[in-house]
Amino acid sequence: MDYRASGKTGSRIAARLTQLQHPVRLAGRSNSTNLPGSDHIHFDWYDESTHTKALTNVDKIYLVVPILDVNPAKVMIPFIEKAIHEGVKRFVLLGSASVPADGPVFGSVHQPLSNLAPEWTVLQPSYFMQNFTEGQHVSTIKNTGTIYSATGEGRVGFVSADDIAEVGVRALIDDKPHNTAHVITGPHSLTYGEAAQLISHVIGKTIQHISLSDEELKVGMIQVGMPANYAAMLAGLDQRIRENGSEDQVTDTVERVTGRSPITFDQFVQTHVGTWK
Hints:
With about 280 residues, the chain is α/β, with parallel strands linked by helices. The chain is built from eleven helices and eleven strands.
C-alpha cells in the first residue's frame, strides 16, 4: 500500500510496482487515480474511520508524513501500531537526509518506527531535483529567471525522485528486509548557484540564485500560506546547509541498492529542458 500516492516519490513507487506486477493500493484524500492496475481508497491521517479499510489485506506499506504537520508522530505512530496489529510486516518511510532519527517532523516517526516494526526502512533523500521542475522553483525559473533559497554557498547532493523511488521499491520487495536508514543522494553535491548555472547553460537563459536570509525565506513561505512553525523548520534546514554543510554529502546508496548509477543533475536538466521554456 502507498500512502500519499500523488506525491513525487509515492506516484513513482506505485507506477514501478505496477510495472513489476505487484498489486498496489493507493491511499489518499483524492478519490481518483490515473494508474491502471491499482485500486484506490480514501484515506485521511486525521480521520481514524478511514484507517481500518486501508489496512485490509495489506502486508507492506510506504509511508509519507502528512504535509505541513510538524508533529506527524501524533497520528502516524498509532496508525503504525494498528497496522502491525492487523498483520502488516514491512514499512518504508520517506524521511530526509537533513533530519536525524531523533530530529523533528520525519525524525519523530523514524525512531519509533525502527523500534516497532518487524521490518523497516527509512529513505533519507537529499533535496529533490524535481523541486526545480515540479516544486517551488519551477515558476520563478520560468517567470523571473531566479531561484530563491537561504542556503548561501552550501552544497546539496540533489537527487532525482526516480532514484529515490527505485530505492524505495527495493526496500518494499526485496526478500531480505533492509532494516536500516538509506541516505540517498545524487552523484555530486552542488550549490544552488551551480545548479542555476547548469540550467542557464542548457536553456540559453540566465538563471540566478538569490540568497535570502533565514527570516526572508520564512516570511516568504508564510506569505504564500505555509504555517509559521513549518516555515521556520524549513528555513532552519537551509540554515544548516549554509552554516554546517548538512547536505554536502554523496552516498553510493542508489547504485548499491538498485544496481544502477544515479541520475546526474546535468542529465536531469537535459531531460526536462522543455519545462522551463
